[in-house]
Amino acid sequence: MGSVILGCLVAFLGVIFIPFLCGTLFKKGELGTGDIVSSLVWGEITLWGIFAWLCVPGVLLKISLFTIGKIFIGTAVVLTLLSLVRILGGKVSFKPGKIGSKGWFVAFLVILIIQISAMIFLRYEEGDDAFYVATAVISADSGEMYMKSPYTGLTTELDARHGLAPMPMWVAFISWISSLNVSFAAHVVLPILLLIVSYAAFYCVGERFLEGDNKKIVYEQKNVQYSTGEGFLEGDNKKIENEQKTGQRNTGDVILGEDNKRIWIFMTAMSLLILFGGYSLYTAENFLLVRTAQGKAIFASIIIPLLTAYMYGHLKSAEKKERISLKSFVMPGLLFSAACLCTTMAPFLLCVAGGVFIVGELIMYRSVKHFVSLGVSMFPLFVSGVLYLFLK
After folding, report:
1. In a domain, 258, yes or no
2. What is the pLDDT of residues 29-61, one digit of tens each?
């Protein structure tokens, strides 16, 4: 029992705490609630992207998962130390905002607890686990990646097609470092942790579309006073005075209420949609609750929502003609790399969607630098897509 608890703690550190620290590398200054939540999501995306770039070559070169895992651990340790140096040096600090509407927050927590309880105590027989979990079991035990059949356990030719989207290897890696049974990790521990990451991604979406936690909009109210004259036209040469900008009001007054009440209404609505989204075997909601540790579920429930929020922000940035920084290349590049880790459909789906987006953005705002930055960031999709065309 003690080893299981310790293993769950290690899994928590690997899936939640360390990614959160790594995510703060993209932040600076005082972090509010939204920044803290997005640090978790972007830290997870960062580590998934790095794992993809390590694991895919490892699969093709037939390198052991244990070797890839050690390199990945070293990389994660370096990133964690860098984040701790920034936090201890005062470059990053944490100041969570007020919850706002406690009623909506409690409602969201209740639904979240129901979903977590279902993951722990209920069983769902998912046929695809015969491949995904079995593949992770073989790799966690032997270190061989996609060299044995998950159905018979016999050695076969390299399964390069599935090896280009090696999310089961990440499951095997978490099981290996935590010493948890792969099936227990894939069906209980990781679903709970990934559900938290998924809701963090939805929080980022809600914050982006609802204009943030407690951000304020400034509006201009011009009080124009004319000096009295003998006639209306004689005011032409009079001085216009007392033109001033006044007032701030919270975006919550415009959308759903005061403070950050609106974000918890959004989160509660999303949790209800997910809870009652099992009207088909192939909905994103069904994937999230019963196939959580599968790559396509992560792609649908974390990558796509976060990509939607990022694209919306990118569109706003192009509209304002904001400058392009190194982060503008790194963050979407890591996001696309993480997408390639999840599923074989990601390169083709995101190449089409991303291509349509950047061309439309270029036509709308004539921002070549934004077009180039996002186009370059799609390089992992191009590489993965080319490999799929030439490998069996």
Report:
1. yes
2. 778 888 889 999 999 999 999 999 999 999 999
